[in-house]
Amino acid sequence: MWTIAGSLEPVPVLSRLDLVPEPVALALKTLDGADRVAVAEIDPTLADTAEFCAHYGSPLEASANCVVVAGKRGEVVRYAACMVLATMRADVNGVIRKRLDARKASFAPMDEAVALTGMEYGGITPVGVPADWPILVSPEVAAAPELIVGSGIRGSKILIPGDVLMKLTGAEILPDLAR
């Protein structure tokens, strides 16, 4: 079923919720289409995208990264989870900043992103982010038939179709999100 798995051994995610942190497990239990999502255990030292793809034989163009962006206007800070293909870059200071109605936008500091999501740095996923965050998705990610994304920890990866990812609460396609 998963043509992008390389040497991974994906299993239905709902059968291995022990491979994801609590916020991710809770979100998966109510996600429409979770039966089409898989998880695979990996070496946590190989969680970074380039090393992961090289070691497991998964195509880089099928990997999507989730970055947490903080947009600030005055004293108000708004966060978003942004999904772009690993081969592209998120337009933080243009498209994302405007969408967050912020004067300034930047990647959230690591400790902040980890504390707010309950996930591990290097494994953050849009599945299970705080419910009031928008999940901004590039059109390329939304259209992908298969994606490999973080699982919330460095020791596993989630395999998910783009259309299922778009069923997450707060998910929206943002044109020109990625370059």
From TrEMBL:
CDD domains: PA2301. Pfam families: tRNA_edit. It comes from the Bacteria. Residues 44-168 form the YbaK/aminoacyl-tRNA synthetase-associated domain. InterPro entries: YbaK/aa-tRNA-synt-asso_dom_sf, YbaK/aa-tRNA-synth-assoc-dom. GO terms for molecular function: aminoacyl-tRNA deacylase activity. This is Cys-tRNA(Pro) deacylase, prolyl-tRNA editing enzyme YbaK/EbsC.
